[in-house]
Each structure stands twice: as C-alpha cells, then as structure tokens.
C-alpha cells in the first residue's frame, strides 16, 4: 500500500463505508425473518414482484430481498450468508467487481443479487468458467432459488437448442462464458425468430471474472464454416519442416544493430524466438524452401501461401507442444486451455495452425475453415445492460477492468483471518533437482497425514510426477484434461487425511476441497506448485485451494532455472548468482529477493499481455461497430418487421448511385453517356433503356425520373402477389440471405486485411489507423453490394418462385483462436530482409551495404 493510500484509505475502503449501512439493514431483518414460516418466506417473492410493479426499485427491495435469501439458504443449505458475503452481494448488484478471497464462498454470495435481479423477470445469467462449476453451482444454489419459487436453468456443452432455450428462459441460468458467447453468435446466424435461444442481454454475474474478462479476452470466439481448399500443402510443409534444421536464436536485432549493419552469424535453416512465439527462416532456410517447392523467389508475392504454410508447419513443430498445448485423442487434435487445463471440445486454432498440427501429428487434416461469425469477450459482455463479477484475484488488473469494462473493483474483507502460510519459493538450478525435492516434500507430508495438492501447468508434468510417486509407492490421484471423468470424486477425496492429488490448472479455480478432521489436525491442505505460471493470478488461485474459510494450510512453489518462465525471462541474472554461490543440482535456495525477482518477470509478461489485449480490442472495435449495424438489421428481419421502406430506400439509393457514377455535371444532358447508365442500371432494375429526353436537363431531374420508374416497376411487381404478406416475406428472405452472405465474406476479408495490415507498420504507418480506414471503405463497399444484390433479386422475382429462408453457410465448428502469435497480425517471416537483398529504400544497393531501412 502506498503512502497516499495509507493516509487517505484505498478506493475499496471508501466504497465499503457506503455499503456497510445497507448490509446493516439486511441484517436488521434477521430475527423477524427467522420467525416466518416456510410458506411466509416463500410468499416474499410474490410480494416483491408486486411492489416492483407498483414503482419500488430493486434498491428499495434489496435489504428485504437479501434477508429473505439469507434465511432461505439457512433453511435449505444450512448455510447462512456471513456479513462479508452480504457486502459482496451488494457490490454485485451494483454492477461492480467484488474481490473476495478464494474460499470465501462466492457461490453463495451470488444467490443474493441473482434473486434480487431475477424479480424483474428479464433473466439473470450466472456465468462460470467450466461445465463442472455450472452444474455444481446450479444444483447447489438452485435449491435456494427453487425454494423461493424461482426457476433455475443450466446450459451445458452437449445440450440441444431446445434445452438451451428452456434454460435461458428460466429466472436464473447458470452457463459457461464459452457456451454463452457461442449461443450469442449462433443466434445471430439464425434465420427464424423461433430458433433463437437467448433472451435480451440483461444482467450477468461473472464468476472468476478475471479468467473470463482478462485471460480469455485474448482469444476471440469464432464460428467457422468450411471452405473448399485442399489440405495438401499442410502435409507437404510438414514433410519440409521435418527436414529443416533449427538454428541458434541470438535475440531480436536492435535498431542500432540494424543501423550499424552489424551482421549476426546465422546458423541452421530457421530461428525460433520462443519469447515472442515467432519463427523466422534464415537465408539458408529460404534457399531450401525454394528448392523444395521449385520456386525462384520465396519472397515473391505469389508465394504468399507457401510462406504462410511453411511458417505454420514450423510453428506447429517448434512452438506448439503435445500434452501441453493440445492432446491427441481419437484421431483428433484437441486444444487444452492454457489457463484452466481443460480440453476445449470442438475448438480449433485458426488461420491454418490447427491443420498444421494435424499434419504434424499424422491425424486427418481437416479442411480449411472460413470465419462466419466472431466476437471478443470484451465486446460481448459489454452488451449487457448490467454486469458484475467476482473473483479472488482482480486487484492486479483493476486498471484494465475500469478502462475496458467500466467496472471498478471493491476488495471485500475475509470472514475469518487467513491462516494459510505462504512460503517463499524454493528455487533449484535444474528441473531434476526441483522434482526430486517435490517428491520428497510429498512423501514427508503424506507420512504425516497432511493432504497435498500438487499443481502442474502441463499434463506431461502431472504424468511425470505421478510416475515418480508410483515408484516411491505413494498412492495418489491424477486430475488432468485426459482423465477428467472422475473430477468430482477426486476433488471430494483430496482433503482427506494423507491424500495426495496431482492436478493441472484444472483444479486451480473454483475447486472446493473440504478437509476432514484428521487432515485439519495434520496442518490442513498443503499446496505445492511445480512451476510459476505467466500470470500471478493463476498462482494465487492455486494457493487459494488451501486455507479456505480460515482453515489451516500452506503453500510453496518449486521452481528451477530451467522452467520456461525462468528460461525466457529471468534466467541470466539468476544463473550468474547461482554460479557465484556455487549452487549444486539438489540445493534448494530460498529468499524473498528471489521470489520478488520471479514476480517481476511475471509482471513483465502481464504488462505485455495487457498490451496484446488492448491491441486486439482496438482491431475488434472496428468490427464491433459494423457487427452492431448488421446484427440490428438482422434482428428487424427476424422480428418479422416489414422491410418495405428499407427496400424502397435501397432501390432509390441504387439509382442515385448509378447516375452519380455515370453522369458528369459539366456535360449537358445530350452528352451524357446513356450506354453506361443502362449498363449499370438495367441488369439490376429491368426498366426500359434510358435515352436522351429533352425534358430532363440536369442530374437531379434524371435521378428523380429514374427513381420514379424504378419504384413504379417494383410496385407493379408487388401487385402481382395477391397477398401483400407474401412479398413482405420474400423481401425478408432475400435481405437475410444477401446480408449473411456479404457479411460473412466481409468478416473473412477483414481477417485477411488484419493479417496483411501488419506489414504496413514497416512503412511508418500506424497499422490500426490503416485497418480502420480500409475497414470502413470495405464496409461501405459491402453495403453497396448488399443494396445492389437485394434490389436485383427482388426486381427479378417471379410469382411462382418458391422462396424460403435458408442458412447461407454450413457451420462446421466453434473455434477459439488460440494461435500463439496473437501478438499482432504481422507475419514476420514474409517480410524478413536478408543481407544480400536489395535495400527497400530503392537505392539499388544491397541491404547490408545500405541504410538499414525496414521496408
Ligand atoms: N455462509 C457460509 N456458511 C457455511 N459455509 C460456507 C458459507 N459460505 C461458504 N461456505 C463454504 O465455504 C466453502 C468455499 O465456498 P466456495 O467454493 O463457494 O468459495 P469460492 O469463494 O467460490 O472459492 P474460489 O475462489 O476458490 O472459487 C464451501 O465449502 C462452502 O460450503
């Protein structure tokens, strides 16, 4: 805490002062409500709804409503909300983020604002991070809501539309962020109103809000469909990638090095920069690729596809790891979520990376997919009228919550003091030394009867440790994405006397491990982290599995200088110190300063990742504005509104556009190019050809006359349909079809634009500005094309034609773009300049002898 905060108090302290009186009020009803019969307590729901309809507000009702839920929870679950939980509940109702430490009972907190806001009958969504929690929480807390007469729904991954619709129609719905996001996208691809599953986005409470709005925000949700491309190139590039030799990475070249034309000795065919997750070919590598594909110039624009695929194959081989980033199961490559350790069923890496991995793993390479709909969590959750969040770890990202989501974070005090002891990190020189020590620590705890939870980042490590413990004869359970069927049982057993559980990040959030008496007496749960995660929040979540509700417990992270994080971000300085001190393989070094150094490395990465998210958001903002317009238009169609006015406007707009393009004001009417007018106009609006007419002297008169003719033509067409509703529906069908087709192409084009625009950065232009400008132009072009197509189709419609709504694109899967180079849309390999290339400044000199300009 800084000095200013010490003197003036923190933001949270200020805010809590205003919340305490409301909490007092809730508590003041305790005795009175305790005396109510079950029936009287249940009757409160009806009473509150009536009072709402008579003009009272949710804020007016809050104290009584919260007291009602509290009493109901006491009767139904045997848990009565603590004062701090009431405070948390108030913060959530106010649309903010409640930071409540791990194990403080956020699941129960949620019942308060969920109930209160559900009284408005517009639906409340409780958003969790995985199916397990959605199901657990809905079943557990659902009992309270049911008792009070509210309905509760759950949406799970394998549910059909009907089940989803029913679940969303409930008063309170438990759903994961992914299911919810995809349902939103799918709803916006529906062609009949009856197909929609979601209601309007009213109020949501996001559990583990940092996971959803921060960690997952880096990766947009994508729904994709098939495109007809062949998969051969992926297989060829995989063969090639296996032949190429990896060279040594010397670090990014600084501007100064480039200026000084300093040459770095390059070896191998390609260089892997693990830190930035980029692969670059060397000059030698480029030659090999050219030979392999029998092409003259790799850098040539016509070889863009080869360039892209070679990079993908190398990334698949050198940056994507089996059993860490993905698993291979039933002849399929399945993504493992880096933050939660869970398999993400049905998801695919975008932009061809998934195919490249399929080729690498020799499973069937699926067809290239085309993006049909996409949104980021930022833009999705900002659509809610009100949103709230809770987590044990939000404060480190407060700035981001405020800036991007307009939510502040209020830190709620714990119910009981935290008794968990968080030890300093134990640091080792090598991984071997580290794992040996971990095993010793587990054995010691096990013998003492203290339950242990060993957290690993990868599936591989969990299996390695399992093997080491098996050799030592220590019985244990393993929880990872490969074996998750027994999750609930493993978690239930993990707090028993002497239990040993190894788990990936899967058990890192939300998992509630209950201790038995013997375990408590033996010191409570011991958490052993086997590696630091990139983000401090993930580590803190793991620690938070112990010491819940004032329980005893301890935690310690075991780290080696060979760990990824250390290797990439902190190794050099630490290695020097270790060598100076003469540290051996099995020596354990422990000091606050070391733990601090590691945190500094994590902070660096966190800042970097924040940059990535902001960047992504800047790009997505452009699409977001456009998406709003398109989705609003679709909604009107689905709602069955008459689109006649819009169609009429399209017709007249089209006419005006044609005249504006072909007629120049400088020329008199007899000099106008009537052929051109007819060429542009008649294929779309089949009226009689336009010719010189002495009554029409200027452009406006021509526009006016043609508009009249076009409208007349359309009115005649309308008159052919005895039932006006028939043509109204035809208008909707045509519009929907054209909008969808053009919009999907547009999304794909914008994707391409984003990929390519990064190159502009070399030309001293801000890529985001360029993207915006070109994006707006493309949107204009798309609206023009929609107008033209719609008008043409309607003007040519035949009475006997059967016109039905149909889905424009075949959806193949819901993807989450998890490609590692989300850093920016730059495909660096495409643009690398080699010493013997001509300098891009145009001097004609070789690059190595010239000015060092980048493009
Ligand atoms: N008011 C209460 N009375 C009794 N027990 C409670 C109360 N509130 C919570 N608990 C218990 O505390 C434990 C932790 O609850 P829960 O798992 O909801 O915590 P959490 O805040 O969601 O933790 P995490 O941050 O790890 O997700 C649970 O076992 C729950 O039964």
UniProtKB/TrEMBL annotation:
Where does the SecA family profile domain lie? 1-590
Enzyme class, UniProt record, top EC level: translocase
Q: Which UniProt keywords apply?
A: ATP-binding, Cell membrane, Cytoplasm, Membrane, Metal-binding, Nucleotide-binding, Protein transport, Translocase, Translocation, Transport, Zinc
Family annotation (InterPro entries): Helicase_ATP-bd, Helicase_C-like, P-loop_NTPase, SEC_C_motif, SecA, SecA_CS, SecA_DEAD, SecA_motor_DEAD
Database matches in Gene3D superfamilies: Helical scaffold and wing domains of SecA, P-loop containing nucleotide triphosphate hydrolases, SecA, preprotein cross-linking domain
Q: Where in the cell is it found?
A: Cell membrane; Cytoplasm; Membrane
For the keyword 4Fe-4S, the answer is no
What family is it from? Belongs to the SecA family.
Q: How does it assemble?
A: Monomer and homodimer. Part of the essential Sec protein translocation apparatus which comprises SecA, SecYEG and auxiliary proteins SecDF. Other proteins may also be involved.
The function of this protein is:
Part of the Sec protein translocase complex. Interacts with the SecYEG preprotein conducting channel. Has a central role in coupling the hydrolysis of ATP to the transfer of proteins into and across the cell membrane, serving as an ATP-driven molecular motor driving the stepwise translocation of polypeptide chains across the membrane.
Q: What is this protein called?
A: Protein translocase subunit SecA
Q: Which organism is it from?
A: [Lactobacillus] rogosae
